[in-house]
Amino acid sequence: MTATFASVLSGAVTPGLFAWRGRPDRDLVGEAEAAGWEALGLDTRNVSSFEEFYDEVARAWALPDWFGRNLDALFDVLADLAVQPTLIVWDGLRRLAELDPVQTSAILDVLRDACGQAAVLVVIVRDDLEISEFDGLL
Q: How many domains in the chain?
């Protein structure tokens, strides 16, 4: 499915996991915040392990020290964060996929499950990827 960012923010598109095909410098976080959404960035382009991935999640989203740094904890924190319409913009999925494609696929599964469980959670990945695990394109 191809959607526009505006259609996601307006609620016309079912929340989910999207691959970004627009300008890489577009301020998606700022636009979402201006539309009343909670918006979080995640940049994992420089991580070299999954431990560093979870450290970056904790840092970027200002999570407490007791954040579990595993798939279950990631799912739980997403549920806690998405009590209002929430957008996550992720740069660096490609880097994780290069490190471990199986673990990266598991993270994508967690993100998709969280999108399905939360009232409104949208994840946009801004990487040029050759994987087709996304719900749509923006």
A: 1
**Domain of residue 73, residue span:** 24-127
Give alpha helix (H) positions in the chain.
5-10, 28-34, 50-60, 71-81, 93-99, 101-117
pLDDT digit string (tens) for 59-88?
A: 999 999 899 999 999 999 998 888 899 999
- Look at residues 37, 42, 41, 15 and name the one whose alpha carbon lies nearest to residue 112: 15
- pLDDT tens digits, 118-137: 889 999 999 866 655 655 56
CB atoms near residue 98 (< 10 Å): 9
Sign (positive/negative) of CA torsion 4, 128, 56, 67? Answer: positive
